[in-house]
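Reopening closed ticket. The problem is back. First fold of the pair:
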Amino acid sequence: MPELKTIGLFLLTAVAELVGCYLPYLWLKQGKSVWLLVPAAVSLALFAWLLTLHPTAAGRVYAAYGGVYIFAAIIWLWLVDGIRPGIWDVVGVTVAMMGMAIIMFAPRTA
């Protein structure tokens, strides 16, 4: 079950990062309120804090997180941007998630 906890934590982290980046995008590109920067900053602070909750080396966490971020961003593309992922998006996500799994869950001595 630690694998599910790790992936769940990564997914929550990815959502915090996506929200933290999307809100300034709305302000800059779509003319929405500058006040969106406040929840964006909170979301990015949450993102950074969530990355500290993993019990392994920071570099390993950052590397593996990238794979889950790619997965979450493609889901965001579909649900928020309204663009259905294509076959190459799915292939890319699969490769990224395999990389994440190897980095986080491979047996190691240190």
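Second fold of the pair, where the issue appears:
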Amino acid sequence: MRKLAFFSALCFFLSAVEYAIPKPVPFFRLGLANLPIMISFLCMTRKESTALIFLKVLLQGIISGTLFSYIFLFSLAGSLASGFVMMAIFHLFYERKLVSWLGISMAGGLANNLAQLGVAFIFLFGENTKFVAPVLLAISFVASIAMGLFANVFVEKSKWLADLKNVSWAEEKNAEKKSAAAEEIKSSSKFQSLILVFSLLMFILLFFSKSIYVVTSIFLLSIVACLAKNKKVKFLPSLAIILSVTFFSILVPHGKILVEIWKLKITDGAILSGLERSIKLCSCVFLSKLIVNRNMKLPSKAGLFMSMLFEYFEKLSEKDTDKKITFSNFVSILDEKLEKAFSC
């Protein structure tokens, strides 16, 4: 359960990062959340990896607020196609050393694109899909190569992954986590349960609201709630996220033109879209901080799983190093972060 919760939180976190990146096509994704899926093949059962694929689709729909929209259909088709194709290639060829992670990633990216283009042809664009296909295939081709190359390096150098593949070590860590969580569940109170219900309600409103006023209100409420619960609140990272996401959103103009600087058209639609995405992302972090509490645990396996997921998401969202990130030390810093988050 612990590994599935951690990998689900990692998919959730990477989906949140990807959500903040402007896209040339509405349903296009870079595929960052495919990395946990690929790595899971090494240290999880096929049943667990299958569950992770479905959880990834669900979490992507939640973080982007598209759970009940046509975009979710694209995500579902693409994620299932890429996930199961990558799983099949891994078990058929990788274990026999006939293919690398680069090949697995490229096959998954191609399967994702073909599935999404098929859905686009049937439900949305029809014959005009041929105009979208070249852009989608070209960008995804480059992204899948980058993901595959990174996976090759990470799998080779990651100490955390090597430990995780050690069954006895992983089971020992999982037993410790479940034991600690069980003790925390016993100490839960009605008041803390009400806080949890409030947080989950805010999550639902946050993800399904398209109003910038509602999203901003939830963002402010989440900050106030965290301060009331004596949670550590850092404003500068949130401000940096809001400014950077909004800036990059402006580069993809749509809506009414407010001002034009050189050839860049600054539009109200792009600004509002960037603000909405970034504020949702920051609200998600603050609400997770509010939920993650020693005494805020739900009974049953499902409750324990959700508690672990949100706790891991908070740990992954924290900035816990002052080291300057470079191309040469990126894998080692990421490895340290994963090790620290998983051992929390």
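Update: turned out to be a display glitch only; the data is intact. The chain has two domains: 2-168, 189-296. DSSP finds 14 helices and two strands in the chain. Please close again.
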